[in-house]
Amino acid sequence: MILVYIDLQKGGASMEVGTGASKEVIKPTVTVSKKRNKTFFAKLKSQKVLLAMSLPFLVWLFIFKYVPLWGWTIAFQDFKPARSIMDQEWIGMEHFKFLFTDENFWRVLRNTVGMSSINLVLGFVTAIGLALLINEIRNLRFKKSVQTISYLPHFISWVVAASIVSYSLSLENGIINIVLVNLGIVDEPILWLGKEKWFWVINGLAEVWKNVGWNTIIYLAAITMIDPEQYEAADIDGASRLQRIRHITLPSLKPTIIILIIMNLGYVLESGFEAQYLLGNPMNLSYSENLDIYVLKYGMAMGNFSLATAAGIFKTVVSFIFLFSANHIAKKFDQPRLF
Amino acid sequence: MIKKSLSVLLMVMMLIAIVGCTKDDSTSGKSSDGDSKDKVTFTYFNAASPGKDLNTNETKIGKIFEDQTGVNFKTEYLVGDINTKIGTMIASGKYPDVLVPDIAIDKVLDAGAFIDLTELIDEHAPNIKKLYGPFLNQMKDKDGKINFIPFAAKQGFIKDPNITQGAFWIQRGVLREAGYPKIKTLDEYLALIEDYQKKHPEVNGASTIGFTALTYDWRFFALSNVPNHLAGYPNDGEVIVDMKTHKTDVYADNDITKRYFKELNELNSKGLFDKEAFVANYDEYLAKLASGRVLGFFDYGWQVQQSLDNLKVAGNDDLRYMPLPITFDGQKDQYIDPPAFINNRGVGITVSAKDPVRIIKYFDNMVKEENQKLMFWGIKDETYSVDDKGRFYQTEEQFAKTSDEKYRDESGLNTFEYYWPMGDMLYSDGNAWVPGKQPEVAQVSYTDGDKAILKAYDAEVFSDLFADPDDRPWYPTWSAVIEQGSDPQIFGQRKTDLTKEFFPKLVLAKPGDFDKVWDEYIKEFNKLDAKSLEDLMDKVVEDRIKAAEENK
């Protein structure tokens, strides 16, 4: 018991272990450091198999996530490929200055945040909603086919999906316009992809159509973890279906939802790339262009890798801030959290 | 301690070994006298176009070249993304012996991957020197080095019989119904379309589209370049070059641009402009043209070739298009490219090449006129014939043969089609360098419908309707090397972004609002640094005029 407690404190893990009992034993462990050392190595030895198993992943993490951070130096240089670092010209914060003084940058930032917020909200609401609905279906065959059909668009590449979307929205043969006109909702077909202010919505809905099925998987998995006895008890108490969803399913899903929200807030500057790139056109440009497209145009396409890196650093810093503050807020309100 | 120093020593040794190895690899040009005809195979990578990977000596033409020089090339063509592929080469430092880097050429030059050819050409390549003689100055970079050999060293001038460059295209049915009028101005052109659309609101059950435009992604220039052509200038990219002062001017904010978009705005208010023009992608655009619903459009022939071919195969002559040299007020048109030397694309020998002398000798051998004829015309009496006046022509059979992809692959006509050191325009005997430019060959490819409409306009080939290009030694300014990430390049990108945003607004605005939108556009445009590009282009024009005069 003592050992477990100390170890967790050091690792900063957030699991709560028998608080009452452990408080008493903190003192002796701190004072007898020699003993602790010994026990540490003893434990190391006893867990060597586990350590060996995790080692490859640590190496992977280091090589693919930490080593590339060295590349951040590019952002402060006037980088030219195939030259050694000694031959590069260092120009300080020039590229950041370019970014933050460019009007276009703030416009694409607005679009990025706008679209990713819409995606975030719509994504969560629809995925949880669909998961709850699917969970309530009693007919197994129907349930499976609904699941399969809703997963399918996830496996289509955006290139194909964008064509489907743009075709459905087209002026003359688009299904959306045909339905709207025949129902008398609009008088004449609307050029949807030409309405710049609608782009965020169209993009959000397309994203939902493509990914909603896929996103339900994690919730459905979480739902299966709920103890059936709780439902049985509720049944006996005479709870209706809606009441069971409200008082059992949703509260049980809460930890999953909060953890996913925290993680997704880290991606607030990632509103996707393919959908906007493929559905974007001159008429909706001022609302469809996001950070990634901007980086592609002003960074990669011009061979200006330094600018692209600077934008990447900016994104990382913002993600960091969002992730930590969301986690901090969750901690404050005593909710489940990442760390 | 001993252990530690031992490991350090080991590391140092390994480092030396690695450095040593790379040194060994990169020592290029194991000099040979180059006279040897021993069989040798080099590698050739083409990032500019898709193609068939093969050994050149497996093709008929390549075999002849191997017999002459002993050299065979193993060719490889780009699959996938060009920047990734070239980037990998640069990062690894391993290149093919001969490289055609296409648009990635700046990166290759930055990385110093090409060897300097100046001495090699001087010593081993009298034929290249002769063919490229007038252009040698333009081939040199800032340090005076020749890093690569550009394609198509133009000798003399001959108009392409068919229009592969810009033009206002109109459905032949429209012309036929109006009695084949000779039209020159934009107003006449649009009036013809308007009349016809009133009489024929539907084609094959779908509504007729008066006029459309290609606006997708990087092809947006097919819309933004038009005012410049209407004012009687060739495609100099973003600028107009004044013929007298030789000063350049970015015309996106000029009156000619305003005038053109005002016309389109009117067209739109009359319901003649394609509503989907600004949202359609390239494929949708091509499909629309091939459907026969579109009466007129502006574009470059090479961008719409696929649709034109489809319409030709479909066989309804009324739905096919006729290219016309339309200008604002009927001034002299300059749609046909002036003979130009594109000096920012080419083929180079890389630092990985084992024997540059043999390669340059191979290149030198292939630019001899008889070998160039072999590369482009093929084998005499098999793919072309010569009449008693020495003119080259093709029978229908020969024409069909040279259009057959399988035959083109086997003979090497595809492999040697372009992307090697080559000339263009006219041989010393007066025949066209490539069959496509020989009027005799063009006429074999024409259908009866083509011949009929040409007769109605009193022309032999389509380009007869277009004016000859004036002498513009700076043409095309769009081939100027603009430093990556520099102010002019950033201006170019910002200008494209701005025009992409505003041109649709200008066209689709209510006619009463047009001036308001235009003023808003100009306000935004003036925030951009147009001068940076104009300054650069002024310099480019000046340098090119100077280079042209030195070569005279």
Strand arrangement across the biggest beta sheet of chain A: 1-2
Number of domains as seen in the coordinates of chain B: 2
What percent strand of chain A? under 5%
What is the H level of CATH, i.e. the homologous superfamily of the largest domain in chain B?
Periplasmic binding protein-like II
CATH fold node name of the largest domain in chain A: MetI-like fold
Task: Tell the overall outline of chain B.
Answer: globular
Rg of chain B, please? 26 Å
Number of helices of chain A: 16
Q: Secondary-structure map with pairings?
A:
The complex is a heterodimer of chains A (339) and B (552).
Chain A: H1 2-11, H2 19-31, H3 33-46, H4 48-66, E1 77-78, E2 89-90, H5 94-101, H6 103-136, H7 140-151, H8 158-168, H9 175-182, H10 199-224, H11 228-236, H12 241-265, H13 274-279, H14 285-288, H15 291-300, H16 305-332
Antiparallel strand pairs in A: 1-2
Helix pairs in contact in A: 5-16, 6-10, 6-12, 7-10, 10-12, 12-16, 15-16
Chain B: H1 2-26, E1 40-46, H2 60-69, E2 71-77, H3 82-92, E3 98-100, H4 105-110, H5 118-124, H6 126-131, H7 136-139, E4 153-155, E5 166-171, H8 172-177, H9 186-199, E6 202-203, E7 206-207, E8 209-212, H10 221-224, H11 226-230, E9 239-241, E10 248-250, H12 255-269, H13 282-290, E11 294-300, H14 301-314, E12 321-324, E13 348-349, H15 356-366, H16 369-376, E14 385-386, E15 392-393, H17 396-403, H18 405-411, E16 423-425, H19 439-445, H20 448-456, H21 487-508, H22 514-525, H23 530-551
Parallel strand pairs in B: 1-2, 1-3, 4-16, 8-11
Antiparallel strand pairs in B: 3-13, 5-11, 5-12, 6-7, 9-10, 14-15
Helix pairs in contact in B: 12-21, 13-14, 21-22, 21-23
